[in-house]
Amino acid sequence: MLGVRKRICSPREEESELRRGPWTLEEDTLLTHYITLHGEGRWNMLARGAGLKRTGKSCRLRWLNYLKPDIKRGNLTPQEQLLILELHSKWGNRWSKIAQHLPGRTDNEIKNYWRTKVQKEARQLNIEANSKRFLDAVRSYWMPRLIQKIEQASYSSSLTTLDSLADREVRSTPSHPPVHNSLPTLLCPPESRFTHYSNPGSENSFSVTSPYLLSTNSNTISQQPDEILENPSLLGDPVCNNLILSDTYNKEGSSYDMDGFNVASVGMGTHDNSPLECQVAEGNWVFDSMEDTLWNMDDMWVFRDLRETGI
DNA sequence: AAACGCTGCAACCGCTTGCGG
DNA sequence: CCCGCAAGCGGTTGCAGCGTT
């Protein structure tokens, strides 16, 4: 499917017969072939050299957003979604900077994702996108949900591996992770004291991190001291089953002031002292296919209920 | 089956940044 | 320092495709 803008040519463009709109297969081939032979850069020259009646700008965009061989296609994984949320909270709409941390993904794709998925959900929740409320919701609700999703996926797959390897007589653990029946708090496998996710299909790996300690015991969430954030080696609670995540927010004076972030404010200020609850809708959502909606409508209703009841 | 509405995303626009002369 | 050009970046647009009525 190709989005095609209306062809509006200035007189000057008509004179030079510059083409606009969707790229043809022939143009793609010309561009790819030329870049294969001569490399990127000097886009205006490149456009002429390749025999394309396109602006250099247009060629650059087509190459970077579509033709470049290492571009990853398809839906964003939960890991990637989480990373986008993380990095956006850090840097705001610095799409190209965010894209640098998602190998194979373009700034355009990430920008589109943010606008079509994230901002849409904000609208449906009647929260102004990029408002503090929305950020609170993202950080304290949806990001943990994504983390859960990732953890559960990895937990399930590791059990599947165990299933195939272990002596089935010895194995007495359930074949699926424990799913709480009634609105559990954040569910983390014991091994998840510190998360490090590798990005599939890439040699690079990245840490998906968050400045909060999410306790599976106490329904509490607490921000880690800067000391710890600056030194990941300090992370990892050897005793309790805490998920400790690290990050350094707002180090570049970016869009969000997370310093004032108050977990309880997710309840929209009705109960100032209420603890954060990362509640899970009924059902085995963790086993759902990794469809790439940021969250589903059921999740949203739970969040909305929480908000309305002030929990 | 036709009309309509919604969504995803490719491509464009305009502004900013970087750099050489 | 200023100017002009090229490249980069973020915001916006508009259409194909799909689902719903």
TrEMBL record:
<feature type="domain" description="HTH myb-type">
    <location>
        <begin position="68"/>
        <end position="122"/>
    </location>
</feature>
<feature type="domain" description="Myb-like">
    <location>
        <begin position="68"/>
        <end position="118"/>
    </location>
</feature>
<dbReference type="InterPro" id="IPR044676">
    <property type="entry name" value="EOBI/EOBII-like_plant"/>
</dbReference>
<dbReference type="GO" id="GO:0003700">
    <property type="term" value="F:DNA-binding transcription factor activity"/>
</dbReference>
<keyword id="KW-0677">Repeat</keyword>
<dbReference type="InterPro" id="IPR001005">
    <property type="entry name" value="SANT/Myb"/>
</dbReference>
<keyword id="KW-0539">Nucleus</keyword>
<feature type="domain" description="Myb-like">
    <location>
        <begin position="15"/>
        <end position="67"/>
    </location>
</feature>
<dbReference type="Pfam" id="PF00249">
    <property type="entry name" value="Myb_DNA-binding"/>
</dbReference>
<feature type="domain" description="HTH myb-type">
    <location>
        <begin position="15"/>
        <end position="67"/>
    </location>
</feature>
<protein>
    <submittedName>
        <fullName>Uncharacterized protein</fullName>
    </submittedName>
</protein>
<keyword id="KW-0805">Transcription regulation</keyword>
<keyword id="KW-0238">DNA-binding</keyword>
<dbReference type="GO" id="GO:0005634">
    <property type="term" value="C:nucleus"/>
</dbReference>
<keyword id="KW-0804">Transcription</keyword>
<dbReference type="GO" id="GO:0043565">
    <property type="term" value="F:sequence-specific DNA binding"/>
</dbReference>
<dbReference type="InterPro" id="IPR009057">
    <property type="entry name" value="Homeodomain-like_sf"/>
</dbReference>
<dbReference type="InterPro" id="IPR017930">
    <property type="entry name" value="Myb_dom"/>
</dbReference>
